[in-house]
Amino acid sequence: MTTVLNHLDAAVDAVLARVQGPIVLGLPLGIGKPNPFVNRLYARMKADPSRPLTIITALSLEVPTGKSELEQHFLAPLVERVFKDYPDLAYVKDLRGGTLPPHIQVREFFFKTGDYLSNELAQQQYISTNYTFVARDMLGQGLNVIAQAVATQGQGEDWRLSLSSNPDVILELVERFAETGQPLLKVGVVNREMPFMPNGAEVSPDFFDLVVTDPAATHTLFAPPNAKVSTADHAIGLHASSLVKDGGTLQIGIGSLGDAIAQALIVRERHGAEYRRILEGLCPEGLAGRELGRFEQGLYGCSEMFVNGFLQLIEAGLIRREVYGDAVLQALVNEGRIDPAAPGEAALQALREEGRISEPPTAEDLAFLKRFGLLVVGPDGALEPGARLRSGHCMTGGFFLGPGDFYERLRTMPAERKARIDMTRIDFINQLYGHSAEETQLKRVQRRHARFMNTTMKVTLLGAAASDALESGQVVSGVGGQYNFVAMAHALPDARSILMLRATHDTKDGPVSNLVFSYGHTTIPRHLRDIVITEYGVADLRAQPDHEVVQRLIRIADSRFQPELVSAAQAHGKLPRDWQLPEAWTHNTPQALDDRLHPWTVAGLLPGFPFGTDLTADELKMVAALRRLKKATQHPVELVTMALKSLWEGKEAPPAYLERLGLDEAQGFKGLLLKRLFAGNL
């Protein structure tokens, strides 16, 4: 029986009373954590060394603070405006500060990118696993409490809860515990800022053992501002968008690359002629094999992460291909034998021909036909063929995370539109095999022409990819669902896996290539190589021999590193000694790329923030200057040059900028130099 508690401390008391001894607490990744409840439970157990606590989770989010004094001064008002009353997790603060008590452990299976590279304890307690194995592994870790933030709707007999952002793992987890008979205390904590999502995320209050309704558990959701989309990001997004088939299935991720892909798809839909011209400038060997047309059928979004880019595509009308929860019905829709917009009597006949319904229909058949709108009650009370199919979904996601306006648009979305979004289990989304042969077949027919797009950090010339960790073994983020989607792309007959990366990244010693001959860590092995994209082009690697794979990847590398890549491949016998890079691919430089795309940025088709930003115009100028300054501090020669230039030109920054950064009353050599450097970079 569910116990409803209206105070967080009472909930903590109940958990400690019901679970004797050590507590192994499972928390959702991202924004699904009930932070106020977790903090109170953590504080109570931190003070009692006799009660060990293990927290198993992922993506523990923390409000940005900045490393330097300038960054801290800049961020303070931005954090107050954007993150408002978001409460940081106390265990994160202790883990970062090295003050985690010895009787408490924090084990994460996915880190916020790069946040724990130098944290030895976090690195040691990291769990490397596929997203689809998380429920299994939590069970294996001895989990005995699961706590989750939930949305609420209605009251009394109509009271319902929604797992909102995170139905991803908990549904499978509860099933696994029920099958094994192991005890699991389930705690739902109401946060009224969570969007109420229907379909797979909606549950009855009795799904939980404890439901906490304390108003103190409601707070602003963690809302990272949109990242700026760089020229390289736009180029990658344009290449990726030209591989998406109309009527197909799409997976993209968060961040600037996800936004770049979404924007490129919108440009393709609304500005076809310009889209073609942009791509012609990016593709030295022409546009053969690229998809350039509009989306007459629309796309279906199927992604472990439902992000702002997907919502933008829904609102732009591109994500609109609905899928239906029946394999036979979906197959008939795919074949064109049932028109979702006008099914009529023809749909009933097609279902009879396939043996899906009987003549006359059974009670089970009638329930099926009513569920999908194939039969409706007419004006005279009799059943008649429906005017259009119902209960379809155009977007399926496992969890969501986005900027503040993303959550607000979900909260205020009309119910009929929200019903087309199905937040559901990750074991349904991230793999083909299901609980039955019919479920497996359903996934296969829903996910036609799938393009599963993921980012990676390094790709070797033989096609292996490193996406989660460095060759030192230090974990940058996590495997997440990347392996699942790559494997699924090879299992579906018309799907493709697309791994995207920027051709280079900056270090204190200058730029280095992200395409390398070999690397000491692998996330995706070379035998699963498929399509790789950099800002300089597309390398289709599927079914190709090694020498062709090497050549195609060198073609899309930064030209500053192509000679050494050729030499390495030839030295190891993977490239003919007389092979030469075609001249058309020897101009892969940032400047040449900027020259090609800058006119389209000016024209408004490739903006830095295609979906807006939480930063003001003044803040954007300040960020740009601070980034230039930060980059220069990593390169002594560049810093000296910048300092001399700033002192010589004697530029002045607006007083409001200086006050924001704490430089308005700068004293001493360091303070005055920083003031000059900042002004010189505006």
Cα Rg: 27 Å
Question: What is the terminal separation in angstroms?
Answer: 62 Å
According to CATH, what is the class of the largest domain? Alpha Beta
Strand composition percent:
5-15%
| CATH homologous superfamily grouping of the largest domain | Acetyl-CoA hydrolase/transferase C-terminal domain
Arithmetic mean pLDDT: 94
Domain tally: 4
Largest sheet, described in full? 9 strands, mixed
CATH fold group of the largest domain:
Glutaconate Coenzyme A-transferase
Total count of strands = 24
Q: Give the helix/strand class.
A: alpha/beta
Q: Could you estimate the helical fraction of the residues in percent?
A: 25-40%
Query: Uncertain runs with pLDDT below 50, 5 residues or more?
Result: none
What is the general shape?
Answer: globular
Which architecture of the largest domain would the CATH scheme give at its second level? 3-Layer(aba) Sandwich
Protein name: Acetyl-CoA hydrolase
Domain Acetyl-CoA hydrolase/transferase C-terminal: 404-568
Keywords: Hydrolase
Organism: Inhella crocodyli
Task: Describe what you observe in this structure.
The chain has 682 residues and is of the alpha/beta class. It folds into 4 domains: 215 residues, 3-Layer(aba) Sandwich (Glutaconate Coenzyme A-transferase); 281 residues, Glutaconate Coenzyme A-transferase (3-Layer(aba) Sandwich), CATH 3.40.1080; 59 residues, no CATH class; 64 residues, no CATH class. Helices cover 38% and strands 15% of the residues. Strands 1, 2, 3, 4, 5, 6, 7, 8 and 9 form a 9-stranded mixed beta sheet that branches. Strands 15-14-11-10-16-19-23-24 form an 8-stranded mixed beta sheet, with helices on both faces. A hairpin with a 2-residue loop joins strand 23 and strand 24. Helix 9 packs parallel to helix 11. The N and C termini lie far apart (62 Å). 44% of the residues are buried. The model has no long low-confidence stretch (mean pLDDT 94).
